[in-house]
Every structure is written in C-alpha cells, then in structure tokens.
Specification:
The complex is a heterodimer of chains A (479) and B (92).
Chain A: H1 2-12, H2 36-54, H3 61-71, H4 74-82, H5 85-98, H6 103-128, H7 132-172, H8 178-193, H9 198-209, H10 215-221, H11 226-235, H12 247-258, H13 263-276, H14 283-313, H15 326-368, H16 383-400, H17 407-420, H18 422-433, H19 436-439, H20 446-471
Chain B: H1 32-38, H2 45-50, H3 60-89
The chains are: A mainly alpha (479), B mainly alpha (92).
Chain lengths: 479, 92
C-alpha cells in the first residue's frame, strides 16, 4: 500500500487542485481545479461520514444501517442488472425444458462464482479510484487493452440488443406495439441520465431493480412442489435426460453461466464504485452490497426457472415459443396474475440492463480515451460520455425492431458469447488484484486466488466442452 | 496509508474540513477546501487526469497465457458462428 500511495502522491503532487481564485469558483475538467464531478462526489462522501458518526453508540437499527444504505448500490445494481432479459429468458427456457432439478443448485453456484469475481472489482475501484478499462490500459498497454475493449464493446452491444428483445417481449403481453415499447424505453434511459447525478441515477435504477422481484410471485403462482425444490438443492437431481453432454443441454448450461458471469459486470461495477466515490475503508460495505445483490439475483433467477416449470409438467414444447411468448404460454398454468408478473419482470429486466450496460460501455469509452466518464458530469461537460451511452442504447433498440429475427436463439447465443469472453477478462482481474502497486495491502488472499482460478478454469472447461459437443455432437455420448 | 479524512492537497492550517457535525446543507461549492477534506487525493478529477499507473512488467509466462486465451476466444467464436449458421440454415 505504501508503495502505491507514495507513487501516486509523487505523481499527484504537481497536480494538486488549486481551489480557484475565489470560493465558489468551480473549474472545468482539465483545469486543475475542483470540478462539478468532485463536488457531487464530495457531497456523497460527506453524507456517508455524517451517517457513520450518527450511526455509532446505542442507537436504533435504522440509524445503524444508514451508512450501509448510503454505500450500497453498485453490487446490487450489477447483479440485478445481470438478471437481465436474456438471463431470465435463459432460466425460463431451462425451467420449461428441464423443470426443477439439476439446474436449480447449478444457478446458485454460478451466482456464488460471480460474487468471487465481482468482489475483486470493489477492491480495485475503492483503492485505485480508477475504472477497469483504465487500469487494463495503464498496466497492460494498448495491445492487450484493445482486445479487452473489443470483447467488451461487441459483447455489450449484442447484449443490449437482447435487452430490447426482452423489453419488446415483456410489453407485447400487454399489447404494446414494439415501436412504442422500444421507443418508450429509450426515452426512459435518456430521462434518467438527465439528472446528471450519480446518486440520483443509482437510486432510480435501484428502485427499478426492485421489480426484478416480480419473478417471486410468478413462481408462487406456479404452486411449486417445495419438496422437489429442496430435493434438487440437496441432490442436484433429476439430471437432464441423456446427460450434460448434449448440444442443447450444453447450450443451456453455458447460457446459464453467461447469465451470471459476464465481462460487462466487471467494467460496470468497478466504474460505479469509482463514480460513487467509495474509499478503501468502504470495501467491507462494498462486499456486503455485492453479497446482497448475489443473493437477491440468485433467488429471482431460480424463481424464473420455477415459474416456467409447469410448461414441462404439462408437456408444452417451448421450441416454438419466441421470447415474447413465455408469459402467454404460462397464463393457462399460473393464471393471468402470474403471467403478468412474469411479463413485467422480463420488461424490467431488459430496461434495467439497458441502463446499466449502456453505462458500462460509456464508462469504458471515457476511461480509455481520457474523456469525462461520470454520471456526475453536467450534460454539456460529459457530452461524449452521455453520447456513447445513448447511441449504443438507441442502435441496439433500432435493431430489435427488425422483423422475423430468431429472438430466443439470439438470447441464448449472446449469453454463450459472454462466457467465452470471460477467461481473458478474469486473467486481467487476477493480475490486477495481485499487483501490490495497484491495490497495496488489498491484494487477494490465497483462498481468493484459489477461488478465482477455479472459476476461470471451470469457465474454460465449460467453453471447451461446449465447443467439443458442438463440433462433435456424438463425441461425449450425447446427441 | 492514506489518512481517513484526507487533507492531502491543501496546506496544513488552511484547510477548513467539512465536519460531519455540520448541518446537512454545508455549502461545499463555496468551501472548496471542504471538498479536499472528504475526498482522497487521487480521487479528484484533476489528479486522476495527470497521474497514471505505469505499465506492469509481464513475464513470458503471462504473455503466453494472455495469447493462449486470446486464441481460445477466437476459436470459440468461430464455433459459435458455425452453430449459428447451422441453426439458421436448419431453422434452429
């Protein structure tokens, strides 16, 4: 820690912001003075300090938890953002094809894997105050940095397309025309950034994320067999018929992993931690935030699977259903109210992820090209940041309006691509989190390293298995 | 270690730190010193724009690993492309 701090102090020394010729004068970015972004972040920090001071001693539970309430956000948002339209549709497809069984505990494990990964971004962001893309370019150079950015930009754009598929699908249940659904959602994405304040943006998106919980009532309307659910958690069974090594099972397996572990999550959470202004002593709160997000997202994801399990029980083939039609297909079995919860949940999942993923792209772009990259920037100052955010969302939304696209298939494939792009991203993460010059005393411990290497190896093995089964369908006894 | 309430960036004695005891409407805009008291030195935009972490020295093994994973990604993407084309032609 000392080494890095000393290094940075030496670098920062000539750049210490001048306070300006008089009080109240804010500097423009690059002027060496305190900017609007600094000011907003300082306000957030001051609120945390006050809450900490008020939260000590013998006081009510609410006041004790208030500092945590102020510090949570990036972790919950990244996980509920990743419970996005393709993820929920992937769980829905899994439930409809295999019911309650092997995939229930499997989903929980993938979320725990994701926690291991995301916790590292909290440390990196809180200690370095730099985004993931910026750190990769600084520490590994432009050659490797461009690869990482290429994976991110392509993956983000494809995923954004699927978010708008989800938005269109969810609202089609209520008879909303695609143009209105997609256009209205774009306006919402635009409307939220008009606040040009990270704190406001975060709280609005957290409020929206709460609706991811709609999958819980949808699952309850399916009247699940609790015994079967408990049995599945304990025994990882029943196993998919024909084993795991069948192309369609491998596709779902990969898709479910991709529903929890993806590159955009690394970039988003680290940048959000920086934008929120977290500091090293907030790392514990950041971990709690990430764990809350993990558990909520796992519960809601499993609920989506449980909600569609009746389709398997009633012998309904889902291959003919497009993403839009899961809610319609479910209605006879879970009722109008259950299907409404499911459809609204898919809409929310797409909308929230459209906000977080487009923000992730904008953060990365700004960090790499040294442009403003904060939701605390006024619109005129951060025009390139907001421009990228909106342009990526608008382009993806426009693509979804093309007729006759195989929407469900696109959704599954996008998740697979996300898994395949993860191993290099995880290698960067491991190297950064073990780099004393970067994180000082907050380097990963032995068990943390074992966990992340295990996750990386598992992802590579899953990817290779998927590749082998796809190229040689009968090689491993499947097909 | 960094100080918990960092005063880095302003000379000692001049800093009017924003105290958590002050009322909720502390006017930070007119007390820029207070901004410096709640943010860490390298949290300021100006500091981040000028200070960058240097390049990490990558060992041969790490370079090979990075290159290998890059090849893995490319090969897998080709497989995905083949599967997509098969699905499109076969009516998925």
């Amino acid at each position: 820690m000392e080494g890095r701090t000393e290094y940075l102090r030496a670098q920062v020394a000539p750049a210490v912001p001048t306070v300006g010729p008089g009080p109240g004068l804010l500097g423009e970015a690059g002027s060496g003075e305190i900017t609007h972004e600094d000011l907003d972040r300082a306000r957030d920090r001051l609120a945390v300090e006050r809450a900490r001071r008020a939260g000590s001693g013998r006081i009510s539970l609410v006041r004790r938890l208030w500092p945590l309430w102020l510090l949570v956000g990036p972790g919950i948002l990244v996980f509920l953002g990743e419970n996005d339209a393709p993820s929920m549709l992937s769980y829905a497809a899994t439930g409809a094809q295999y019911g309650i069984g092997f995939f229930v505990p499997f989903i929980l494990v993938t979320f725990l894997m994701a926690f291991v990964v995301q916790e590292m971004t909290v440390r990196l962001g809180a200690v370095t105050h730099r985004g993931h893309a910026e750190l990769i370019f600084d520490r590994f150079g432009t050659f490797w940095g461009r690869f990482a950015m290429g994976d991110l930009i392509v993956g983000n754009f494809l995923t954004l397309v699927t978010e708008f598929i989800g938005i269109r699908a969810g609202l089609s249940f209520f008879g909303v025309p695609p143009v209105v659904a997609v256009g209205g959602s774009m306006l919402l994405v635009f409307g939220v950034i008009l606040t040009h304040r990270y704190w406001t943006w975060e709280r609005i998106t957290l409020g929206l994320a709460a609706f991811n919980g709609l999958f819980i009532p949808a699952a309850l309307f399916a009247h699940p067999q609790w015994g079967a659910l408990g049995h599945a958690f304990l025994t990882w069974s029943p196993f998919p018929q024909g084993g795991l090594f069948k192309p369609d099972v491998m596709l779902l397996l990969m898709s479910n992993i991709g529903a929890t572990v993806t590159p955009w999550m690394l970039f988003f959470q680290q940048s959000a931690v920086v934008d929120k202004g977290l500091q090293p002593r907030d790392i514990r709160a950041g971990r709690t935030d990430t764990m809350i997000g993990t558990l909520l997202a796992a519960a809601f994801g499993i609920a989506a699977l449980v909600a569609t399990a009746p389709l398997l029980a009633h012998g309904i083939k889902t291959e003919d259903y497009q993403a839009a039609q899961f809610a319609q297909a479910l209605q006879p079995w879970i009722g109008r109210a259950g299907a409404t919860c499911f459809a609204l949940g898919i809409f929310e999942a797409g909308l929230l992820a459209a906000m977080t993923i487009s923000t992730s792209s904008a953060y990365a772009f700004g960090e790499v090209f040294h442009r403003p990259h904060s939701l605390n920037r006024p619109l005129w100052e951060g025009w390139s940041f907001y421009g990228i955010l909106l342009a990526s969302a608008f382009a993806a939304g426009a693509l979804v309006l093309l007729p006759n696209a195989p929407l469900t298939y696109i959704v599954l494939i996008v998740n697979v691509i996300a898994v395949l792009a993860m191993p290099p991203a995880l290698l960067f993460l491991v190297l950064l989190c073990n780099d004393r010059e970067v994180v000082g005393e907050h380097t990963s411990g032995r068990w943390g390293n074992i966990a992340i290497v295990t996750v990386t190896v598992l992802l590579i093995v899953a990817g290779l298995g998927y590749g082998l089964v796809t190229v040689f369908p009968k090689l491993l006894g499947g097909g | 270690m960094k100080p918990e309430h960092g005063t880095v960036g302003a000379p000692p004695g001049r800093v009017e730190a924003a105290s958590p005891r002050e009322g909720p409407d502390v006017d930070l805009e007119h007390r820029p010193e207070a901004v410096l008291s709640v943010l860490e030195a390298d949290q300021l935009v100006a500091a981040k724009e000028r200070a960058h972490l240097g390049r990490m020295r990558l060992s041969g093994g790490v370079r090979v690993l990075l290159g290998g994973l890059r090849l893995y990604v490319v090969a897998m993407m080709i497989i995905v492309l083949v599967q997509v084309l098969n699905a499109v032609h076969g009516g998925h």
